[in-house]
Specification:
Chain lengths: 332, 332
């Protein structure tokens, strides 16, 4: 059922089998499986996730390569609701381990917010990441190209950059190293730092050895039309010619609500998980971009399958077996 | 490109980056990724795989729950071909490790067969399993229900059996244990051995304690209409009432062509793989039902992503970096 500030009070006394933080590809997969295991679950989605911005999903079995992320999310949200999951728009502020259950505190509504607390035996952290984008005065100019011809994922979109003039936009010297992977797809790489970092002599020499020019001026404007990039104008007036690009400026990890849980095993900002997407906390699972591994839709969807299945196994094994009561006397 | 006996000779001198054995969900996912990494690959599909028989895929993010396996396979085959993969109908007879490459011997054509040998740096084993079905004189009677109301996968379809009268068809005593998982979904379970195994006293007692009757006569006919099961007629004339069922009679593993490769790590008939779907042989990957883990479409699709990505990494790291030649003198 779709929950809102109007009806969510009906769920406050309930203990969900699982609360899924994040209604992206992984979280919705988990919800579909949980519901089909007959388990109660609540998906809490803050909106504006990474896959919502995805203009097309090129590499997912069964969907046309021009399918927008938004369409898949809408479809999968309906799938999860149809099978019986609950769904709420809100922002998870805190998760507290209460021993047998987790308390999940949510902010609902941007104005006149309310702060309900839901309870679940398990929590699935599926809240993902968000890519840092270059900050320009006119952010609409960035959004006009990001996700179209200006990509954030080389695995997803490297193929579509093949042998094109490309910019690599990096915010730290370390992030410039992506040039030496991007060159699998195209050697025509200009590196832009947007004025965010200094670049040491060794990196300068390495770029020069590969023929990749380095531009350290801030970006002023992306040039082109109809989402097709043609060039990048820098603060000193120069225009760098490019028809495509990769933004590699790191990510915001939506994992703040887990930081209070003791003894969680992290690898940087990623959660370490086992082969069933379980973290070092036996009742906490992590999916997709939030866990260590490839940031791909297919992987997040499989992670949802694994987490839901392990939760089902745990709950099933702890439950009394259902007997065919009418037969007991007859068969005894 | 679609290959056939007419044109496959054009590919016999080529060394593919990867040869994918099996054009099911996992193999096609691998092919889509490989092609989008700009790697050459050949998918060899024998036909009649497990997912082809799937009448609906209930739990896959982005597709309607009544989508037949056949439609997804056709769609994904086109996806892989469109991105540049080769595809051949044939049966892989043998894979021989030649040190740097594998030689893959294929039988093409049921009559007047030819036996071409293809070469690839990597092999992806994605040939899956096939469920054993009860053998009746009239197999069409089995096919009329299998995949509709008579299921082979509890994770996929347990939900659709909820609280219905169900049969569990098992071929060994061990397989009867599925009753004690199936009872999560319904307690109204009749166990049928189809006359294939003897059942010990402990198992008989356990079934009786749960109220699950045991029928040891061979099945003669599935009764019902329009794929909707109503009962099962046994050899002694009894009819067991049931509207759904689970066939749990084990699987045929399509892994014969790997049995000659030394030092592969197996877990029964499943290949043991690491977190990138790589077997204990560094140039051999295994996906989906053939590897240890859950037999789910979402998992196979993610496995294809992982295997293709690791193969790309290996090949990329072994390749000379592409430089922007025109700039080299300028930047030196």
């Amino acid at each position: 059922m779709k929950l809102s500030s109007k009806n969510l009070h009906t769920r406050l006394d309930q203990v969900y089998d699982a609360i899924v933080v994040g209604g992206g590809m992984g979280g919705l997969s988990a919800a579909i499986y949980l519901a089909r295991y007959g388990l109660s679950c609540l998906v809490i989605e803050k909106g504006k996730g990474r896959s919502l911005w995805m203009q097309d999903l090129r590499n997912y079995v069964g969907l046309d390569p021009d399918t927008p992320g938004r369409d898949i999310l809408n479809h999968a949200t309906k799938q999860a609701l149809d099978w019986g999951a609950d769904y709420l728009r809100g922002f998870v502020e805190e998760v507290v381990d209460e021993g047998e259950t987790f308390a999940v505190k949510v902010k609902v509504g941007k104005t006149d917010s309310i702060y309900p607390v839901f309870h679940g035996k398990y929590v699935i952290a599926a809240s993902g990441i968000m890519d840092h984008l270059p900050q320009l005065e006119n952010m609409q100019n960035v959004y006009d190209y990001a996700g179209y011809t200006l990509h954030v994922c080389m695995i997803c979109d490297g193929f579509d950059m093949w042998d094109q003039k490309a910019v690599l936009i990096a915010g730290t010297e370390g992030q410039i190293n992506a040039a030496f992977v991007l060159n699998w797809f195209t050697p025509y790489i200009s590196v832009l730092t947007h004025g965010l970092c200094s670049v040491g002599d060794a990196m300068r020499a390495k770029l020069a050895e590969h023929g990749y020019p380095l531009y350290e001026q801030p970006i002023v404007e992306f040039l082109g039309e109809n989402h097709h990039l043609q060039g990048i104008k820098l603060a000193d007036g120069q225009v760098v010619e490019a028809t495509t690009g990769l933004i590699n400026m790191g990510s915001i990890y939506h994992n703040h609500y887990l930081k209070g849980i003791p003894n969680l095993e992290w690898d940087g900002e990623n959660l370490v998980t086992n082969d069933m997407a379980q973290t070092s906390h036996p009742r906490l699972f992590a999916l997709g971009d939030l866990k260590k591994g490839l940031n791909q839709v297919s992987v997040a969807v499989a992670d949802g399958t694994l987490a839901a299945t392990q939760i089902w196994r745990n709950i099933r094994r702890a439950s009394a077996p259902r007997k065919w009561e009418e037969n007991l006397a007859k068969l005894a």
